[in-house]
Amino acid sequence: MLTAASTIRDRVEGLGIGADDYLPKPFDFDELVARVRALARRSTPSLPPTLAHGDLKLDPARRTAVRGDVPLALSPKEFAVLEYLLAAEGRVVSAEELLEGVWDEAANPFTNTVKTTIGRLRAKLGEPALIETVREGGYRI
Predict the structure, then answer these.
(1) Distances in Å between the alpha carbon of 78 and those of 12, 74, 105, 125, 139?
(2) Average pLDDT over all residues of the chain
(3) What are the two backbone dihedrals, phi and then psi, of residue 27, each rounded to the nearest 5 degrees?
(4) Is 73 helix (H, G, I), strand (E, B) or coil?
(5) How far apart are CA 43 and CA 58, in angstroms?
(6) Does 72 score more than 80 pLDDT?
(7) Which of 54, 2, 7 is CA-nearest to residue 25?
(8) 98: pLDDT confidence band, cut at 50, 70 and 90?
(9) What digits encode the pLDDT tens for the residues 1-43?
(10) What is the DSSP string of 8-63?
């Protein structure tokens, strides 16, 4: 993170929200180069964990999903919705949250896109049903 915010509190907050490093302005260019090189020397980033629920397994790194021993042929949006729901770990996810998290900012909030995608996903996941509709709430696995 390269920023004009330079208090200790700013640095702690920046690192706390996910920054790998924090360099306040003004900075020395040689220090910036050294920090970038140090970050590049770190080991390769870890792969995201496999998400699972019952006999359903989703591997975000390999972009694969399997239920039981059957590979699932999911569209990119279906895969993204399934990943989002699994990552929520049982929390109810509203249609609006799915629109914001999976679709782009041009998605129409008054469309049935989420409902349609959930329907296709349910059909591909088979029985027993994994995606629950929570009345006036959204969806959860």
Answers:
(1) 37, 6, 18, 11, 14
(2) 90
(3) -135, 160
(4) coil
(5) 24
(6) yes
(7) 2
(8) very high
(9) 888 888 888 888 888 888 888 888 888 999 999 988 888 887 6
(10) HHHHHHHHHTT-S--EESS--HHHHHHHHHHHHHSPPPPPPPPEEETTEEEETTTT
Structure tokens at 11: 């640095």
The amino acid occupying position 104 is D
* Distance separating alpha carbons of residues 88 and 82, to the nearest angstrom: 10
List C-alpha distances in Å: 103 to 39, 65, 77, 139.
31, 20, 8, 16
Angle between helices 95-102 and 76-87 (to 10 degrees): 120
Owner of token pair 């021993």: 69
* Across 28-42, 50-64, 65-79, 119-133, least confident range: 28-42
Name beta bridge partners: 58.
Answer: 51, 65
